[in-house]
Amino acid sequence: MNRRGMAVVVGGGIGGLAAAIGLHRIGWKVTVLERLPVLDDAGAGISLQANGLRALDALGVGDSVRGAGAEQGSGGIRTPSGRWLARMDMARAGARLGSAVYSFHRARLHETLRGHLPVGQLVTGAQVTGVRDGEEGAVVEYEGDSGVQTVRADLVVGADGVHSRTRRAVCPDAPGPEFTGTTVWRAVTDWPVAGQADIDQTWGPGLEFGSTRLPGGFVEWHALTEEPLAVPAGNLMDEVRPRFGHWHDPIPALLDATAPGTVLRHDVFALDTPLPTFVSGRLVLLGDAAHAMTPHLGQGASQALEDAVVLAAALHSAANTASALAHYDTVRRPRAQAVAKAARRTGRVGHRVRTPLALALRNTLIRATPAGLALGQMVKHAAWTPPSLPTRTEQATRRTYT
User: Within the chain, what is the greatest distance between any pair of CA atoms?
Assistant: First the structure.
């Protein structure tokens, strides 16, 4: 039996936490380094599709995660006046996929995932300053409460987001992320708001507004616009309300139910040039660090969860770490990059449509699309079967590798 390895996960977001859970499950000693004392986007919401939830099931945490979210049964696309362009039968899609879509307050989802890590595995306030792979192992340097720290590991998992430092160590010559021209405004209402589908999208000229029901009747909303790259300043609601405050109900009510200071603005960056590899030596990328994509398919988090499961399964079953990482790259890179390409393509028929003629043509085509075809497109990217991981009773005999 090969000795159990030591892994450092750079980044304590959804993908990083899932990777740590998977590695711990197969017997690795894990340290997660998160640069912030409080995880980012704490005031936003997030949805996970069937593939992401299946990944969590494979990690053994699916039931507890579902308990923190709200199952979505209805949805659709409208115009700003409220006219329906398409209705989505989320329950039917869930039946085909074996799992419904669930939505979460992001902070609650993070908290649930952290609860499945052993005490002491997550180090917050750890700003990673260097990642490299050497002859005697991978090395991570970070600044924390005790000054500069150096950690040696058998594996470093770069889950450090779109502006990943680990990516630069894995693919030093690859182009970095590019600004897509899209800005996302996000928030969660301060009180429950009724009168909407579980998942609601509205497409206007150059604008898009979406909302999702959360547990307790609270609502996550997000708005997409095309803006120049900018640093958020002032009252962000003053920028959102003029664009969307006159759209159909319940959009005005959602804005009224949101404290202005809780609105988040994020300019969307993506890896337009796909990486040639997700792996270099003992370094491996997952999530946005590997395949940052636009939000138009809602697949970013679910793809990161797929990454985490495939990585853990490969390390559990392969003869050594090198072959495990080669398998991970072979399996994950084509799928994740294909989903990223599809997300960008989908965005072209949403908020990027502006002219009256293009809007009329798009809306006509959406209304004319048969429900079965639309449902097929909905489930296309969520249809994924995870590899097997050891059960808890198998952990005493599991293998891990250096």
Answer: 66
E strand residue ranges, 90-135: 101-105, 122-124, 127-134
Cβ(162)–Cβ(292) below 8 Å: yes
**Looking at residue 370, what is its pLDDT?**
76
Nearest to 111 by CA among 61, 173, 151, 77: 61
Which residues are 226's β-sheet partners? 182
Burial class (CB in 10 A: 0-12, 13-18, 19+), 256: middle
Q: How many helices (H) and strands (E) does the chain have?
A: 13, 19
Q: For residue 237, is it within any domain? A: no
pLDDT value of residue 5: 92
Mean pLDDT across the stretch 243-269?
Answer: 95
Q: What 3-state DSSP class applies to 376?
A: helix
Beta bridge partners of 7: 30, 155
| pLDDT at residue 2, rounded to an integer | 36
Q: How far apart are CA 359 and CA 205, in angstroms?
A: 7
| Residue range 225-253, pLDDT digits in tens | 998 888 877 889 999 999 999 999 999 99
State phi, psi for 204 to the nearest 5 degrees. Answer: -120, -175
Q: Which pTM does this prediction carry?
A: 0.93
Tokens linked to 265: 């603005």
Range of the domain at 123: 6-71+104-177+271-349+388-397
Residue 78 falls inside a structural domain: no
Average confidence (pLDDT) over 55-68: 96
b/e per residue, 57-75, with b = 16+ CB within 10 A? bbbbbbeebbebbbbbbeb
Q: In total, how many domains does the chain have?
A: 1
CATH number at residue 155: 3.50.50.60
With contact defined as beta carbons under 8 Å apart, do 389 and 309 qualify?
yes
Q: What is the pLDDT of residue 39?
A: 63
254 inside domain:
no
Rounded Cα gap, residues 34 and 370, in angstroms: 46
Q: Residues 368-395: pLDDT tens digits?
A: 877 666 666 667 888 899 999 987 545 5
**H helix runs in 10-85, sequence order:** 14-25, 50-58, 62-67
Strand spans (E) along 205-319: 207-213, 219-226, 264-270, 279-280, 283-285
